[in-house]
UniProtKB/TrEMBL annotation:
This is Protocadherin beta-14. The gene is LOC121138891. It is a single-pass membrane protein. The chain crosses the membrane at residues 683-706. The keyword Glycosyltransferase does not apply. Coiled coil: none annotated.
Length: 793
């Protein structure tokens, strides 16, 4: 796993090195200090050989050392201008030349170009003496030609703009020479021209003038007071001509640096000495002080190796007689790791698009004012982050992505850049940057379920909320804003737009109209979820709607059919046994489930206890044996009820006629819409008895007639026989079961007693009830056939 990453790091590093090498040439500018803000330094576009469009498109940027921005690039013109006035003395001090370094960063592609500005000194400071009066004691025995060094003037300018010459007022005793120190500083030296005589003139007052080399020349003056002393034979002498010492830069204020010591062979006041700093520079005077009595040199302020690495000063020891001796003290400041590394961010791109290849996140520089190992630094970031830290020249680093980032995996990175020096103790600086991974529409919406099943009770109200679908999108912003829609149905006969609507914002589904279970039990459709990113991504899910049955249909009686003008009548032989099947009520319910479970019940009967109905199949059967006392006509009121909530029901009225046999004429009955009175029942009984008597006589006559006819033909036949013929009544005359098939077959039995067999006589077993509107016709037809067989017209 480490090898591919190492290859990518090496490849990125090599590419950046090539770019940096391509821009390794240094562009140089020169400008005077104190130039106004906004002044032109140079045309960067021209000096780089780039057009203005290239300069803008490549994202040119000026990087200054440290966090202080001194230069500014004008994108429209390509000019490099000053962002503020530059003070050479503040930026460089006494360093000559004063060079300010900067870098030009071209972001696309990444390229560094080194640049420098030489800040030229202007004569903006006049020479200045640290004391208003210089006291010089000279013994009267001094010989002409003796030289007496004077304290120097300070000038912050450099080069020709600093002190170049000293002059003194014209007098009869002295003239002035200007000498040079090894570091290039000029110093004044007073030369005795004529011997002094204390008794003639006890003191001489002179004016010392320092002149710089600027144009115009600036000057500074001080007074020199020469005091003539009596003869002093011995001048002070230091134990060492040069003192060299090293101190740590963190030495506390007031600490002893060293002690200088001088001796004087004279006695009395001529042997008493005082110590002082002679011709010391401003930095020396600010940093150190000397005890005039014992020569102890102590620290006056905190030292800073990064400011001044060494100090050199002259120490003068003067006795009471006016003679003096001098020595040199060299103090080297030793670096201490007292400065933590500094990090200056030059470029920060805090928003990186996901799925982008290796991208530059930040460019920054690090620095440490310490020296040696204390100033060496290492830079690092946390492990296990998809970022690479690539070093460049001049302590610059580039932070780049290791590869494409995935916002859905990690949307934000907090990268801590740690810079540690190699000093003792090691000092560390940390800088944390936050990188946001901006979203790219690379994830389609995902439904929480692959399919949804919704249940809707039929007969619902229109615009009923029946459920909701939901999808999520791991992207963000508009890329994650989802719109829901109905997709065209695969079944062209399904008018989906008239059945279902969907809220495009939240995926809620609504039934547009009332649904009917009996017409539509279930239907399916697809919904789509589409984001608003670019490109647009979408996904689909299946929605299945199941319509739940409501008990909104009452049972429907198929048999017997109800006709107000001709009620259905069933014939029942009086010889029927108990449990004899009279008929079967057939009913259906368009609902489903328990809403379609039917039960049958006998509500009312002419004679209670004679008939019963089976609750589960609707069969009407006799509950006991019939007797002669039972009424010949019965009216049954049956109830068919479903098992819904609330239950629905239907009723049917059935007429049953008791007969002694099926040879009895089958005639339509009068209307039985109401219960007969007791008198009517008696009259009916009498009529039935009379009709039975007449029928019996008629039957007997017919039998006799048939017997005679058959006997005549018996002679032609040796014997007679009987056969049984099976037949079926038409469908509307037979019992119909719940399944719609015949439940019982019937037989015709015919006996032949000779003759040719052309005449038939039918003895019928129980005949099933028929519909009343066809009953009269059927009965009349059978009677007519019956007469034809008997030869009766």
């Amino acid at each position: 796993m480490e090898t591919p990453r190492l290859k990518r790091q090496v490849t990125a590093f090599v590419c950046l090195l090539l770019l940096w090498e391509a821009g390794s040439a240094t562009i140089k500018y020169s400008i005077l200090e104190e130039t106004d803000r906004g002044s032109l330094v140079g045309n960067l576009a021209k000096d780089l050989g780039l057009g203005l469009r290239d300069l803008v498109s490549r994202g040119a940027q000026i990087l200054n050392k440290g966090n202080k921005q001194l230069l500014q690039l004008e994108q429209k013109s390509g000019n490099l201008v000053l962002k503020e006035k530059l003070d050479r003395e503040e930026l460089c001090g006494s360093m000559d030349p004063c060079i300010l370094h900067f870098q030009v960063l071209l972001k696309n592609p990444v390229q560094f170009i080194q640049g420098e500005i030489q800040l030229q000194d202007v004569n903006d400071h006049a020479p200045e003496f640290m004391e208003d009066e210089i006291l010089l004691k000279i013994v009267e025995s001094s010989h002409p030609g003796a030289k007496f060094p004077l304290k120097i003037a300070q000038d912050l300018d450099i080069g020709s703009n600093t002190v170049q010459n000293y002059t003194i007022t014209i007098n009869s005793h002295f003239h002035l020479l200007t000498g040079n120190h090894r570091d290039g500083r000029k110093y004044p030296e007073l030369v005795l021209d004529r011997a002094l005589d204390r008794e003639e003139q006890a003191e001489v007052r002179l004016t010392l003038t320092a002149l710089d080399g600027g144009s115009p020349t600036k000057t500074g003056t001080t007074q020199v007071l020469v005091v003539v002393l009596d003869t002093n034979d011995n001048a002070p002498e230091f134990a060492q001509r040069i003192y060299e010492v090293q101190v740590q830069e963190n030495i506390p204020v007031g600490a002893l640096v060293l002690t200088v010591s001088a001796r004087d062979a004279d006695a009395g006041t001529n042997g008493e000495m005082s110590y002082s700093l002679f011709q010391a520079s401003n930095p020396v005077l600010r940093a150190f002080e000397i005890n005039t009595d014992n020569g102890e040199i102590r620290v006056r302020k905190l030292l800073d190796f990064e400011d001044i690495q060494s100090y050199r000063m002259e120490i003068e020891a003067s006795d009471g007689g006016g003679l003096s001796g001098k020595c040199t003290v060299a103090i080297d400041v030793m670096d201490v790791n007292d400065n933590a590394p500094e990090l200056s961010m030059s470029l920060l791109i805090s928003d990186i698009p996901e799925n982008a290849p290796e991208s530059v996140v930040a460019i920054f520089g690090i620095s440490d004012p310490d020296s040696g190992e204390n100033g060496k630094m290492v830079c690092s970031t946390q492990d296990r982050l998809p970022f690479l830290l690539i070093p460049t020249e001049e302590n610059f680093y580039t932070l780049v992505t290791e590869g494409a980032l995935d916002r859905e995996s990690t949307a934000e990175y907090n990268i801590t850049i740690t810079v540690t020096d190699l000093g003792t103790p090691r000092l560390t600086t940390q800088h944390t940057i936050t990188v946001q991974v901006s979203d790219v529409n690379d994830n389609a919406p995902a439904f929480t379920q692959t399919s949804y099943t919704l249940f809707v009770q039929e007969n619902n109200s229109p615009a009923l909320h029946i459920g909701a679908i939901s999808a999520t999108d791991s992207d963000s912003g508009s890329n994650a804003r989802i719109t829901y829609s109905l997709l065209p149905a695969h079944d062209p006969q399904l008018a989906l737009d008239s059945l279902i609507s969907i809220n495009a914002d939240n995926g809620q589904l609504f039934a547009l109209r009332a649904l009917d279970y009996e017409a539509l039990q279930t239907f399916e459709f697809r919904v789509g979820a589409t984001d608003q990113g670019s490109p647009v991504l979408s996904s689909q899910a299946l929605v299945r709607v199941l319509v739940l049955d409501a008990n909104d249909n009452a049972p429907f009686v198929l048999y017997p059919l109800q006709n107000a003008s001709a009620p259905c009548t069933e014939l029942l032989p009086r010889a029927a046994e108990r449990g004899y099947l009279v008929t079967k009520v057939v009913a259906v319910d368009c609902d489903s489930g328990q809403n379609a479970w039917l039960s049958f019940q006998l509500l009312k009967a002419t004679e209670p206890g004679l008939f019963s109905v089976w609750a589960h199949n609707g069969e009407v059967r006799t509950s006991r044996l019939l007797s002669e006392r039972d009424a010949p006509k019965h009216r049954l009121l049956l109830l068919v009820k479903d098992n819904g909530d609330p239950p629905r029901s239907a009723s049917v009225t059935l007429h049953v006629l008791l007969v002694d046999g099926f040879s009895q004429p089958y005639l339509p009955l009068p209307e039985m819409g109401r219960e007969p009175a007791q008198g009517e029942d008696a009259l009916t009984l009498y009529l039935v008895i009379a009709l039975a008597s007449v029928s019996s006589l008629f039957l007997l006559s017919v039998l006799l007639f048939v017997g005679v006819r058959l006997c005549r033909r018996a002679r032609a036949t040796s014997r007679g026989g009987c056969f049984v013929q099976e037949g079926l009544f038409p469908g509307h005359l037979v019992d119909v079961s719940g399944a719609g098939t015949l439940s019982q077959s019937y037989q015709y039995e015919v006996c032949l007693t000779g003759g040719t067999g052309t005449n038939e006589f039918k003895f019928l077993k129980p005949v099933l009830p028929n519909f009343l509107n066809e009953g009269a016709y059927r009965n009349g037809e059978e009677i007519s056939n019956f007469r034809d067989h008997l030869g009766i017209s």
